[in-house]
């Protein structure tokens, strides 16, 4: 992930049911424009005869198209576009909640486009020598339906910021104009249980052999269309002729497959959609809608700042204790439960205790934590990002490059890391960032490993580094003046360790059956998951 997290863009892109990930084989770029293919002719235009059957009415919807550009040094770094949907005053007064919902989307589309063009431009400047050409971030919005039952927006997205091909997709937003709430597809259907099999049958008829590709590609745990209906991830719209389904590249098949489209007509499936959601007449777009082209908006490139490099102090003087408060109190633990089995899956432990499953990105009450700068494997990161959690989303607070701290030489001792060490967990408490650094291996491979550091975020100074081999668990907990962590490995001793959070000194250790993996604290009880045992300890103040 990139450092500039934007909650608005995340929310907008969540509408696109695509995931540009590994597909298990080399993909070919579609020869024709996927965006043009994605809009079915029946939905994009109304026949002349149908238009004549409708009495003309004054347009009450305006779609304004805004081009966005970032230029500099005689070059176009990135272009983009977005749309804004506005209602007439009369129509807005009739459906105020619909107007409010449209304003939310309008703001999101605008912010996402302008910030993406700025960010993509920064990347384009970085990639100047690679001559990748101008990047782009283009979105469009159209209205497919507008009546007293449903207001449907058809949204498209296409972006290129390097790589083998652009990313693109479509989404349909179906809104109840009275309440402003978005409809679920299963709410439209008379018999949701029969729908997945019907879609499978229709898709195979439209694209012979496609379901073999879909079933081999899909990464879910069950039947693809059952899961999509249950999770409400179909892109759909309801017209006067039937129910339409749109599938973007990578949604259920490979990129080379392109866009897929299925129309389920009422004449073939009269009992598919509930009668109250079937429009009585076609939506005459040219009567209801006008479009405008607006002046270009120019943005400045966003250049990601370099991460703050945290230096590696010598092991000879690992603790700066001049700022240790008086009367530090270290907790103690009293075991109240120990359940041992052959193996304790972390998912089961998390479900039983109510704590979140382990994740590379996580948040507490105040901050969101994430990692970048991957090393040899996808779980080995050496750059830490910490974001403030605000009402508007996430705002970057810290960007620390910890590679030298984890792997740099100790020049005073003449020591160098033997294997790559990386971030295990982090927590920010009262302007002190606690980070556990280590690797998954025997202490004989890397004796100076699996420790905790404390960093003053005001000075970027390492306040202390604990002794090695005290912490290699997936997380740790800071409770009062105590940092609770754990260490263990095959054929090595396994302990829960209590550290003074102001000095890093190990004040107490509690042996456990196998290596601690996860910790959770609630109502004065410490919950611990190890490889095969679930513990509970009463925290003694």
Helical content class:
10-25%
CATH architecture of the largest domain: Beta Barrel
Largest sheet: 7 strands, mixed
Mean pLDDT: 87
CATH topology of the largest domain: Lipocalin
Query: What is the total domain count?
Result: 3
Stretches with pLDDT under 50, minimum 5 residues: 5-56
Shape: globular
Number of helical stretches of at least 4 residues: 13
Distance between the termini: 40 Å
Instruction: Work out the radius of gyration.
Output: 28 Å
**Helix/strand/pairing class, anyone?**
alpha+beta
Number of strands: 27
Keywords for this entry:
541 residues; alpha+beta; Heat Shock Protein 90; Lipocalin; 3 domains; 7-stranded mixed beta sheet; 5-stranded mixed beta sheet; 13 helices; 27 strands; globular
């Amino acid at each position: 992930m990139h450092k500039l997290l934007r909650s608005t863009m995340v929310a907008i892109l969540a509408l696109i049911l695509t995931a540009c990930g590994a597909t298990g084989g080399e993909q070919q770029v579609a020869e024709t424009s996927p965006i043009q293919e994605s809009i079915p002719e029946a939905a994009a235009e109304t026949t002349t005869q149908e238009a004549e059957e409708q009495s003309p009415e004054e347009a009450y919807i305006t779609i304004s198209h805004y081009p966005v550009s970032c230029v500099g040094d005689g070059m176009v770094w990135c272009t983009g576009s977005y749309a804004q949907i506005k209602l007439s005053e009369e129509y807005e007064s009739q459906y105020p909640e619909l107007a409010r919902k449209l304003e939310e989307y309008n703001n999101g589309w605008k912010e996402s486009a302008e910030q993406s063009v700025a960010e993509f431009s920064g990347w384009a400047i970085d990639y100047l020598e690679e001559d990748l050409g101008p990047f782009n971030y283009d979105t469009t919005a159209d209205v497919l339906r507008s009546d007293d039952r449903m207001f449907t927006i058809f949204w498209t997205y296409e972006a290129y910021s390097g790589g083998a091909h652009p990313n693109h997709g479509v989404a349909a937003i179906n809104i109840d104009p009275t309440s402003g709430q978005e409809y679920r597809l299963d709410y439209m259907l008379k018999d949701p249980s029969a729908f997945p099999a019907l879609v499978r049958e229709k898709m195979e008829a439209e694209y012979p052999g496609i379901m073999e590709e879909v079933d081999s590609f899909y990464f879910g745990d069950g039947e693809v269309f059952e899961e999509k209906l249950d999770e409400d991830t179909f892109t759909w719209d309801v017209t006067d002729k039937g129910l339409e389904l749109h599938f973007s590249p990578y949604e259920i098949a490979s990129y080379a497959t392109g866009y897929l489209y299925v129309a389920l007509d009422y004449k073939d499936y009269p009992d598919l959609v509930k009668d109250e959601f079937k429009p009585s007449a076609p939506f005459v777009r040219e009567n209801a809608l006008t479009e405008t082209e607006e002046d270009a908006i120019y943005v400045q490139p966003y250049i990601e700042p370099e991460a703050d490099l945290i230096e590696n102090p010598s092991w000879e003087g690992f603790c700066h204790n001049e700022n240790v408060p008086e009367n530090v109190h270290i907790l103690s633990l009293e075991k109240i439960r120990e359940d041992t089995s052959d193996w304790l899956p972390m998912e089961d432990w998390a479900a039983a205790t109510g704590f979140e499953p382990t994740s590379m990105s996580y948040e507490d009450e105040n901050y969101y934590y994430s990692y970048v700068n991957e090393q040899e494997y996808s779980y080995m990161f050496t750059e830490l990002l910490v974001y403030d959690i605000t009402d508007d989303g996430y705002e970057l607070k810290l960007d620390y490059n910890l590679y030298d701290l984890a792997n740099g030489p100790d020049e005073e001792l003449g020591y160098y890391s033997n294997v790559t060490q990386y971030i295990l967990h982090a927590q920010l408490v009262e302007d002190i960032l606690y980070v556990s650094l280590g690797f998954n291996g025997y202490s004989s491979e890397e004796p100076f490993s699996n420790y905790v550091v404390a960093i003053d975020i005001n000075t970027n100074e390492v306040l202390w580094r604990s002794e090695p081999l005290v912490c290699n668990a997936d997380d740790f907990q800071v409770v009062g003046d105590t940092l609770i962590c754990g260490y263990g490995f095959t054929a090595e001793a396994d302990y829960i360790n209590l550290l003074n959070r102001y000095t890093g000194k190990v004040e107490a250790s509690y042996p456990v059956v196998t290596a601690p993996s996860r910790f959770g604290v609630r109502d004065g009880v410490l919950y611990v998951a190890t490889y095969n045992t679930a513990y509970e300890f009463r925290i003694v103040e």
